[in-house]
Fold this sequence. Notes:
Elements: E1 29-33, H1 39-48, E2 55-59, H2 67-75, E3 80-83, E4 93-99, H3 106-120, E5 124-130, H4 154-162, E6 170-173, E7 178-179, H5 184-191, E8 198-207, E9 212-221, E10 229-237, E11 240-245, E12 253-259, E13 262-266, E14 273-274, E15 284-291, E16 301-309, E17 317-324
Parallel strand pairs: 2-15, 4-5
Antiparallel strand pairs: 1-2, 3-8, 4-6, 6-7, 8-9, 9-15, 10-13, 10-14, 10-16, 11-12, 16-17
Amino acid sequence: MRFAFTIFIALLSFSACEVIDDPIPANAEDNLQIGAISADSARLFDSLGIFADTDYKIDQALNLDDTDSLISFILNNTWAISTAPDNSNRRFITLEEFTGHECIFCPLGTKEIIRLDTIFKEQLVPIAIHAGGFARPRQSGDKFTTDFRVEGGHGELYQQEFNPGNAYPRGMVSRLRSTGNAGWEADINSIAADSPIAELKLTSYYSNNANVVRAQIQVIPLVPSSESFSLQVFLKEDNIVDWQKDAFSNPVDIEFYNHRHTLRKVVNGTWGLNLPNWQVGDTLSYQYVTTVDPNWKPQDLEVVCFIFDNDQSSYEVMQANAAYFTPR
């Protein structure tokens, strides 16, 4: 398919400076930029999330290796569009919880996250990372056979790096420290009033027929910085009903437990994309185009993105946002 407007292809070599070994190979995505767009096409293209000033990072499994094929793919599919909340004047906060379906105390973590969610609402972005011994699936039987661990071994790498220990549930509020669920609210309150270093705009474009989501992300600096930051992109699914151990229930093994905010996919590698040094007035624009497992429920899927300090002594999450695949 050819188009009347001018297109140039900028194939960029992908080289991310990883902090530790990453199970996702360095060439797991193709990089494209779209050239000049005619005025006649601009309105339609804007509505579909096709932008000339964006770096497109495309799952290689899609075989979209030039701008013509990318644009044709977008035009020939139907997209549900959902926009994340405005965080231009608020610091949004991640809560990464380490959990597992054979952890008898982990339902306490779920209950605490539900409670905190009612207090902090959209400002809080919870993510449940199934990792470690409690998360291993059983090899036989009729329960605890589901593998909730994210493909690629990312959860185990996060567990190694952040060392939450074996006393689950454990969680990290914007990666400040690892604590039990009793410490999460205090950690949230300690940073909830902070001014953000950047605005993080996020729009999700989801195609059910193609099993693809496109995450359009704009990083808009609000303060100058010489520090080094990275952009991380996740997919997570809410309301997965399956087995869970619970020390406070009778019986202890619950067949129809509601697993919340489960990390499903690490889109751009364990440690994300290194961002260039920025100045106020810059806009860094990226669109991740990635496949979605057809067994996941679109109505409960979200794109999560966050900016973190990639200094190995910190990893602090400085800004975050999330958008459902389908409008709420």
